[in-house]
Design a protein that fits this description.
This is ActR/PrrA/RegA family redox response regulator transcription factor. With about 190 residues, the protein is α/β, with parallel strands linked by helices. It is built from eight helices and seven strands. It folds into two domains: about 110 residues, Response regulator (Rossmann fold, 3-Layer(aba) Sandwich), CATH 3.40.50.2300; about 40 residues, Arc Repressor Mutant, subunit A (Orthogonal Bundle).
């Protein structure tokens, strides 16, 4: 992975509030991304958990946020939801190493403007944060594999069942323990 602090900014920041909340439980990634975003003109506040992220928003809701989906103490979508309630014009990008369609849809429904898979560099994050609402992201170069499509389907049903493993297993006609093993793994390529 290239050094995210070294890449030049390709998009100009709009004038006005440049406050940004960066929430990720991977400390080295958090520090590198924070430095990279600060060097591009953002006023960055960092948090390593859902609780810290929510606490950082109590004083003032930021104009931008970059939030990891899976955090040690919960789901980053809690932060997205609270931020959208506190500040409707906030622009939020969700990052995750466990990307799937169901959680991407949930993130967008809660107010996120984009959903990026890790490792994402600062230029990708800034492009997503500053993209005009009418612009669409480029389609992926490689289509999903059959294993990935199966995994996506399981994730979609899991989200439809409100993350209830037993109900999801019943609907998929799958043993609950098998489903738990699948859910604990990263998405196939």
């Amino acid at each position: 992975m290239e050094d995210i602090a070294a890449a030049p900014a390709k998009a100009r920041l709009p004038e006005g509030d440049r406050s940004l909340l960066l929430v990720d439980d991977d400390r080295p990634f958090l520090q590198r991304m924070s430095r990279a975003l600060e060097s591009r003109g953002f006023a960055v506040a960092t948090a390593e958990s859902v609780a810290e992220g929510l606490a950082a928003m109590r004083t003032s809701a930021p104009a931008y946020a970059v939030v990891d989906l899976r955090l040690g103490d919960g789901n980053g979508l809690e932060i997205v939801e609270r931020l959208q309630r506190a500040r409707e014009d906030a622009r939020v990008v969700v990052l995750t190493g466990y990307g799937n369609i169901a959680t991407a849809v949930s993130a967008v429904k809660l107010g996120a403007i984009d959903y990026l898979a890790k490792p994402a560099d600062a230029d990708e994050v800034i492009a997503a944060l500053l993209r005009d609402p009418g612009d669409r992201a480029e389609p992926p170069e490689n289509p999903m594999s059959a294993d990935r499509v199966r995994w996506e389907h399981i994730q979609r049903v899991y989200e439809m069942c409100d993350r209830n493993v037993s109900e999801t297993a019943r609907r998929l006609s799958m043993h609950r323990r098998t489903l738990q093993r699948i859910l604990a793994k990263r998405a196939p390529r």
